[in-house]
């Protein structure tokens, strides 16, 4: 056998390991690379898609921590505050992925998540290099999270579903609660990034981060109904509602919802930290999950209907504290500060 041919045959296994299909033969080794790759500002390129009320603040913390950031938003002007601080603009989710090791999403609806991640020509997974990670921080459908995780694994990448709770204040102050689903080792490896935004807690495999967030939304929905009903009762009974809120805030009725929204409602400040139309979306996903599971949660259903009534009045762009308007209308009253 000619010497050059013998040398080529000896190199064949190594060549195959480098150029074999990552979707089939080397997905496991690429996943291992994802698990062990260090995450730090000087080694990790970060991408961010979605710069709304929450996303803009969250991405800003990554810039402050020294990470290089490539950004995309359907409304290009919303990325300008990040560009002014040194971020780079990309023309599509795929372009963000091509320039990043870890890509975060913070978009509106499950349909947006699907398009941004799975579109074969412009989606994140079509542009990610093997061993990279996509992290969806949108509140979305658990089954979609599992689908994205499977699709990511098929191309030698990883996916984490990591929705958050804490509202606009938590996003600005980097005190968000982050519910993470996926590979625990990947999530632990990403902890330097998560710490820039809040506290991450591992919930389990793919989709369980989303299910944890849906449970969170169920609690918030009924808590908000109780809060606004109590406020309307206090008002109609002749109490000073501001003093009443202060009095109950340190007792068993105290809650994060009261702290975040009580004063805003009294001040008639309905600016969105979290949009009504997004909360209606979240509660709709919760109800679909409950129907699939055979669960009857009447408090959730009532809260959903009250928030839907805000949509009927054209108030979907207000914050979730606008629930007070729905209960006021039911009782033909209006709170005075």
UniProtKB/TrEMBL annotation:
Keywords: NAD, Oxidoreductase. Residues 207-324 form the 3-hydroxyisobutyrate dehydrogenase-like NAD-binding domain. The keyword Oxidoreductase applies. The active site is at residue 213. The keyword Oxidoreductase applies. InterPro entries: 6-PGluconate_DH-like_C_sf, 6PGD_dom2, 6PGDH_NADP-bd, HIBADH-like_NADP-bd, HIBADH-related, NAD(P)-bd_dom_sf. GO terms for molecular function: NAD binding; NADP binding; oxidoreductase activity. Residues 45-203 form the 6-phosphogluconate dehydrogenase NADP-binding domain. This is 3-hydroxyisobutyrate dehydrogenase-like 1, mitochondrial.
């Amino acid at each position: 056998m000619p010497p050059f041919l013998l040398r080529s045959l000896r190199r064949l296994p190594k060549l195959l390991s480098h150029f074999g299909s990552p979707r089939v033969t080397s997905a496991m080794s690429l996943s291992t690379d994802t698990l062990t790759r260090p995450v730090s500002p000087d080694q990790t390129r970060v991408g961010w898609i979605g710069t709304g009320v929450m996303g803009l603040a969250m991405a800003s913390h990554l810039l402050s921590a020294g990470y290089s950031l490539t950004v995309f938003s359907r409304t290009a002007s919303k990325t300008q505050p990040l560009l002014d601080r040194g971020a780079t603009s990309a023309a599509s989710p795929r372009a963000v992925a091509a320039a990043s090791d870890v890509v975060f999403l913070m978009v509106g609806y499950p349909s947006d998540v699907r398009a941004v991640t799975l579109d074969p020509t412009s989606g994140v997974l079509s542009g990610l290099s093997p061993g990279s990670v996509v992290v969806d921080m949108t509140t979305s459908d658990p089954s979609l999270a599992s689908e994205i995780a499977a699709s990511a694994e098929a191309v030698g990448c990883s996916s984490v579903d990591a929705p958050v709770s804490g509202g606009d204040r938590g996003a600005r102050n980097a005190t968000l609660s982050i519910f993470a689903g996926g590979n625990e080792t990947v999530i632990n490896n990403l902890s330097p990034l998560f710490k820039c935004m809040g506290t991450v807690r591992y919930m389990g495999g793919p989709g369980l981060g989303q299910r944890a967030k849906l449970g969170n939304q169920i609690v918030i929905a009924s808590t908000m109904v109780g809060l606004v009903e109590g406020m309307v009762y206090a008002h109609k009974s002749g109490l000073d509602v501001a003093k009443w809120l202060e009095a109950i805030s340190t007792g068993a009725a105290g809650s994060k919802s009261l702290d975040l929204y009580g004063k805003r409602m009294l001040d008639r400040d309905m600016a969105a930290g979290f949009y009504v139309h997004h909360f209606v979306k979240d509660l709709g996903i919760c109800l679909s999950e409950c129907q699939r599971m055979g669960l009857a949660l009447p408090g959730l259903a009532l809260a959903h209907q009250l928030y839907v009534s805000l949509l009927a009045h054209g108030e979907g762009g207000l914050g979730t504290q606008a629930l007070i308007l729905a209960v006021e209308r039911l009782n033909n009253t209006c709170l005075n500060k």
